[in-house]
Design goal:
hydrolase, Alpha_rhamnosid, alpha+beta, 5 domains, alpha-L-rhamnosidase, 15 helices, single chain, 6hp_glycosidase-like_sf, EC 3.2.1.40, Immunoglobulin-like, 11-stranded mixed β-sheet
């Protein structure tokens, strides 16, 4: 009997094993991406990296092998024929950035792909198919010529507020055979809209992405097969000024770059069913005009649109273009042609206004209820020639009028001239505004404007929102929401400082740590990869890096802190997205900058070049923003030397990752020498104070690992005393110190102090901004009372490490330092008196992470989700592992949960993928 039971059990096990080997596991493969983009068109990565996610109902899902098929047609892929690449079964857990290894990819190649995996829970079925296409990889692939008008037209303004009318171009052509495929490639500078047969191509706005056009220009690719027809066709493009024809080019020409008049290069490649091809390309046969309805456009000053000059059907076949001019051949911009590998901007949300109030003189003030970046869409009815003027601002004067002094000389005004008759709907094409309030004047006679007549159009890069976070503290929640709006406002094909005044520049120092925090809220991987390329292109041959990149302003200040962002953003892309390639691509340029600074600005073993200090230390005023007053500001030499030490440390890590052992040893030696010189210069060995004992002066060396071990406790206590006693529990750091403040306090055992800073509602604090009506983040801690010249209501630089702290320390969502790209999670929330709950989610490159905890009297509960093909180290606030339960059982005995060790008052477990419910009693 026992023998029969044993044999029966053995047979059952063998049958189950055979079933698992032959049948797809209940595991889903999803979010297939190529270069972290979904089905991209026209890429120029010749060995593109493929990524996917695994999910399944059971815990502990791990990939053990994968197979990728890439085919040249959908039919071949469906037949499991990988004629471009069949990876075969590859024993590997890698599911992010798997490099294509098949046939060489050439211009225009269309690739269709799918993946299947083998997992700890059995093999999967093939994934749903995905695709990508290759762009034009060689200069000679471009068949067209650059066209444009290299001159101004009547009505154009070429003074200091330079603004041109839009240029319209068109071409008719025939397609007399059935069409199999049609693809458009376009470089429209500064900005373009593309039309085929009267239909606008794509949903992008303000395209392409801005660059230093003498270094590189971005092209976009579109599948336009569905827009062409047999017979007569027409292609049209409208060009706006963008950053190409600069907004203030005559103001300070030695400072401000401009690149020329708008110009266009494009081609539509048509493949017919019989295999023959046609190319419709820009050349002298095109026609153009500057006498269309967009009369002026300028990013700072606004757009004027005259609907009486509309040209119905101008981008359709059969349009009468006798009055148009022949297109002129113009000089190319000089930069290399590059596929745009980051998302274009798009109208990402539409908001309804919350109120409209009349003012004297027939004006109205519209309140959107939210500071945003984008524009206003209006619906209006009147007679031909009526002009509606829209003027934008962030705040109001006590009288109810717009407050515009903080906009400097930006005119921020749109004008719409009605064509008359039926109701008309309009929104601008080639500008954006940073605003909450809109002054409306010139409304036609008849009914007064109502809220239904207007929409706020929120514009930023078309990237997914990846994070969400709420806590039991209303102030923290409001500040998080303000940060969300501020970040999206300042994504404009590059990260800019503000969206409203006559600046809007990609300052490096604003994103040194900010990019890292932003990466929890938005999938900013492609934007920042593009920005690193901008920085690299802006680097001079000797290694110098500007403070603004692309270098639309020629600011080569050679300080350490702003250009050092080049390294910290590369580190973020590696840490958050597992992108090792970005380190390899930029390593030589980063090293050249590091050596340049060390060779040119070294004094007594220190690197002391600083320009901005701890920018915007409270209390701010126009005179004190970067004052050298030793009583309130940190010594710039200390900031520069400690930051340079941190840069050496980052480069050492990059060198280790890239197997550059000799370089790593060099960095280690230089760090040791710098550390010794730094402590000799700045550390008081008796008081354990650095320099003048500001929070930043002590915090930087502590965060960078420069403090002698015997002095660490006292240095940290100096920071806490400075905050709690001298500053009465308030922040006293500027842009530099705030980058390390919240994590520095929490990781050294004072999360209560960090929480106090986060929850404050009086000056100076993030909560003070919210308490005074802010719906974004201010440029200054006293942004409601500051000098108008430095008073942006929509900046992100003062966020510092606040978002990182919220996700990593409050919620406990962090990629383990030795496992970049969330290969392994380190989940270590920090419950603190005064905060009873935190709930957060984050869409990592490997899948969705969730963490939701609640602190009650004598009970801590924590629900968490770990994505497939990932493990997590989980730190529970429990001094005794026996006090921890999971799913109603002792955690140490729960399925998928492994107790590792006790670390003081925390019990540490390892878990695989899945959902978990922990309770500590």
């Amino acid at each position: 009997m026992n023998l029969r039971i044993v044999l029966s059990s053995l047979l059952t096990a063998l049958l189950l094993t055979a079933f698992r080997a032959d049948q797809p596991a209940p595991v889903q493969l999803q979010r297939l991406r190529c270069e972290l983009l979904t089905n991209p068109e026209g890429i120029d990565a010749t060995a593109p990296r493929l990524s996917w996610e695994l999910s399944g109902p059971a815990r502990g899902l791990e990939q053990t092998a994968y197979q990728v098929l890439v085919a040249s047609t959908p039919d071949k892929l469906a037949a499991d024929e990988g004629d471009l690449w069949n990876s075969g079964q590859v024993t590997s857990a890698q599911s992010v950035h798997v490099a294509y290894g098949g046939q060489p990819l050439r211009s225009r190649t269309r690739c269709y792909w799918k993946v299947r995996t083998w997992t700890t829970q059995g093999p999967t079925a093939w994934s749903p198919p995905a695709r990508w296409s290759m762009g034009l990889l060689n200069y000679l692939d471009w068949k067209g010529r650059w066209i444009g008008f290299d001159r101004a037209f009547p009505g154009d303004d070429e003074t200091s507020h330079a603004r041109l009318s839009a240029r319209y171009f068109r071409k008719e052509f025939k397609a007399d055979k059935p069409i199999r495929q049609a693809t458009a490639y376009i470089i429209g500078l500064g900005l373009y809209e593309l039309y085929l047969n009267g239909q606008r191509v794509g949903e992008q706005v303000l395209a392409p992405g801005p660059t230093d056009y003498t270094q590189g220009v971005k092209y976009n690719t579109y599948d336009v097969t569905g827009l062409l027809k047999s017979g007569a066709n027409a292609v049209g493009a409208v060009l706006g000024n963008g950053r190409f024809y600069a907004m203030r080019q005559h103001y300070k020409p030695y400072k401000i770059k401009t690149f020329g008049y708008p110009k266009l290069l494009m081609q539509v490649e048509v493949t017919y069913a019989d295999g023959s091809r046609d190319v419709v390309k820009t050349d002298e046969s095109w026609q153009g005009t500057a006498d269309g309805p967009i009369r002026t456009n300028n990013e700072y000053d606004g757009e004027e649109y005259d609907a009486t000059k509309e040209m119905p059907g101008w981008a359709s076949a059969g349009f009468d273009a006798k009055k148009w001019l022949p297109a002129e051949l113009v000089q190319e911009p000089g930069g290399a042609y590059e596929a745009q590998m980051n998302e274009n901007m798009k109208v990402m949300e539409t908001l309804k206004p919350v109120s409209i109030k009349p003012l004297a003189g027939g004006k109205y003030i519209l309140d959107m209820g939210q500071n945003l970046a984008g524009w206003l869409r209006l619906r209006v009815q009147g007679k031909a020639g009526d002009k509606v003027t829209l003027r934008f601002a962030e705040t109001l004067q006590p009288s109810g009028e717009l407050y515009v002094r903080n906009l400097r000389d930006a005119r921020v005004t749109d004008v719409y001239t009605l064509k008359g008759g039926a109701p008309e709907t309009w929104e601008p094409r080639f500008v954006y505004h940073g605003f909450r309030y809109v002054e409306i004047s010139g409304w036609p006679a008849g009914p007064a404007p109502t809220l239904a007549d207007f929409d706020g159009r929120v514009v930023y890069d078309d990237m997914p929102t990846t994070g969400a976070l709420t806590t039991s503290d209303a102030t923290i929640n409001q500040v998080y929401r303000n940060a969300y709006w501020g970040i999206r406002s300042n994504y404009k094909g590059m990260p800019v400082d503000c969206p409203q005044r006559n600046e809007r520049q990609p300052w490096l120092g604003d994103r040194t740590t900010g990019a890292y925090g932003e990466s929890f809220v938005f999938d900013n991987s492609r934007l920042y990869a593009k920005w690193l390329h901008d920085i690299e292109q802006a680097q001079k041959a000797d290694g110098s890096i500007p403070d603004v990149a692309p270098a639309f302003w020629r600011y080569y200040g050679d300080n350490v802190t702003w250009p050092g962002t080049y390294l910290t953003v590369a580190d973020m892309l590696y840490r958050q997205y597992g992108d090792e390639q970005v380190l390899a691509r930029h390593y030589d340029s980063m090293r050249r900058w590091l050596l340049y600074m060390g060779q040119n600005y070294s004094e007594n073993g220190l690197v002391t070049k600083d320009k901005y200090g701890d920018w915007c230390v409270p209390p701010e005023s126009k005179e004190l923003i970067h004052s050298k007053d030793p009583a309130r500001n940190t010594d710039g030499a200390l900031i520069a030397s400690s930051t340079y030490y941190h840069m050496l440390d980052l480069m050492r890590g990059f060198a280790v990752t890239l197997n550059k052992t000799r370089d790593a040893d060099e960095y280690t030696q230089r760090m040791a020498a710098l550390k010794t010189a730094f402590n000799q210069k700045f550390l008081n060995p008796e008081s354990c104070q650095y320099s003048n004992n500001t929070v930043t002066a002590n915090l930087l060396p502590l965060s960078y690992g420069m403090v002698p071990p015997e002095a660490e406790a006292k240095v940290f206590q100096n920071i806490v005393d400075k905050i709690l006693v001298e500053n009465q529990g308030h922040i006293s750091t500027g842009v530099i110190g705030t980058q390390w403040l919240m994590r520095g306090l929490t990781q050294r055992g004072r999360p209560d102090v960090a929480l106090r800073l986060a929850a404050n509602r009086d000056y100076p604090s993030w909560g003070y901004m919210a308490a005074n009506g802010a719906t974004t983040i201010w440029e200054l801690w006293n942004g409601n009372t500051a000098d108008p010249a430095m008073n942006s209501q929509n900046h992100v630089m003062l966020l510092g490490d606040l978002l990182i702290w919220q996700y990593e320390n409050l919620a406990g969502i962090k990629s383990a330092p030795d496992a970049p790209g969330f290969q392994r999670l380190e989940m270590k929330p920090t419950p603190t008196t005064g905060l009873t709950s935190v709930s957060a989610s984050y869409q990592s490159v490997r899948g969705l992470v969730k963490s939701s905890w609640k602190q009650e009297p004598k009970r801590f509960s924590w629900n968490l989700t770990v994505p497939g093909n990932t493990k997590a180290l989980v730190y529970l606030p429990a001094k005794d592992v026996e006090k921890v339960q999971e799913g109603g059982k002792k955690a140490s005995a729960a399925p998928g949960v492994k107790f590792l060790r006790q670390e003081g008052d925390r019990a540490v477990f390892e878990v695989g993928s899945g959902e978990y419910a922990f309770v500590v009693k």
